[in-house]
Every structure is written in C-alpha cells, then in structure tokens.
Amino acid sequence: MLILDVSNSTKAPPEIYNHLSHIERKLRDLNSDENKLYMNYRMGEELFILSSQPHYTILLAFYAKSLWPASDFPLKCSFHTVDDSYPEYNPDRWDHPSIKAVRESLQTIKKSKVQDFSSPDMPKGIEIALMYATDIFRTVTPLQQEVMQYYLTGITQKEIAKLTKRSVSTISKHVHASRVKQLTEIIDYVSEQYELN
C-alpha cells in the first residue's frame, strides 16, 4: 500500500488538487492484468493506493515524486507491503491493521524538512537513500524535472534535446544539475533491497 499526502495542504492553492489528480491518472495508466492497482482519496487530500505486486508501491512513490511540481508543498509518501492477498472484493472495504501503521509512519514525516518517504520498520540504509532522493526531488527546477522524467524512461540526451527543443549541451548540463544519475542509483539500490525487477 501507499499513501500520498500533500504537506501543508491547508495553505496550498486549489491547483494542488489538479496536480494530485494528474498523478492519479498517470498511476492508473500503470494498471495491468499482472499488477492490479486500486486508488481512492481518503482523509481529504490523501491518495490511498493498493498494489497486488509486493514492494511495487515504493516505485510508484518515486514516479509520483518525479511528477510532483509543487516544491513549496511537498508530496509525502508512506509505503508498506504486507503478507496478505490483494482484496478480490471492493478494496474500499479492505481494512487491514497495517493501514494504521502506514498512516502513523506518514505522520512522523509530515513536517520533516529532510524526508518525504516513510515506511513502518524501514531499514536504515533505505531511509538514508530516501533522504538523499528527497533532497534531489526538492531542489530540481521545472526544466530539470522535465529532463529527469525523460531520462528515467531511458531515452538519450539527444532525444531529450529534441523533445524539449534545447541543445544537447544544455540537456547534458540539466542531467548533471538534476542529479538524475544519482537518483537512478538510489532507485536501483532500493529495487535491489526490495528484490524488485
């Protein structure tokens, strides 16, 4: 499961909810027969997500963060995998005890300046990697974020230059400045730790 929550949402402009809806649509596009995804809003501005694939929600959290444009209102992500079957009935009625643990874990980072990711019983190595990822996501400019999104899909800098109508040297500078290569290493590390392919 994954809960996405907008920090300081009471002070956020109305377009914040448009951003959250955009992320919801992008995440819904990842639904497949092999990996079932369920999404619904809970507790106001929280987007609650269930995935049938173990530990997949951490990758969904990275994807959501790469799309999130409002650095003044960080998107907080609390994820967890439990040893239980994906509910075959209406997931709105799925009330696993670990939902409370995920929500409590989220509360611990709600006002954090250094961490946008949480999980009950998160290993220290993962926690440190996610602190670094938080710093990367929070410091990119809009163009660097766009370059990051393209880079993470695996296309070349030349192709990114064409898509953004910028020179290859400009894109190369933004790849470096966005620290997307370090972010890729973090994603690889987290994927390896959680045995994701």
From TrEMBL:
Keyword match Transcription regulation: yes
Entries under InterPro entries matching the protein: Sig_transdc_resp-reg_C-effctor, WH-like_DNA-bd_sf
GO molecular function terms listed in the Swiss-Prot or TrEMBL record: DNA binding
Gene Ontology biological process terms in this record: regulation of DNA-templated transcription
Record field: transmembrane: none
Name of the featured protein: DNA-binding CsgD family transcriptional regulator
SUPFAM superfamilies registered for this protein in UniProt: C-terminal effector domain of the bipartite response regulators (SSF46894)
Keyword terms of this UniProt record: DNA-binding, Transcription, Transcription regulation
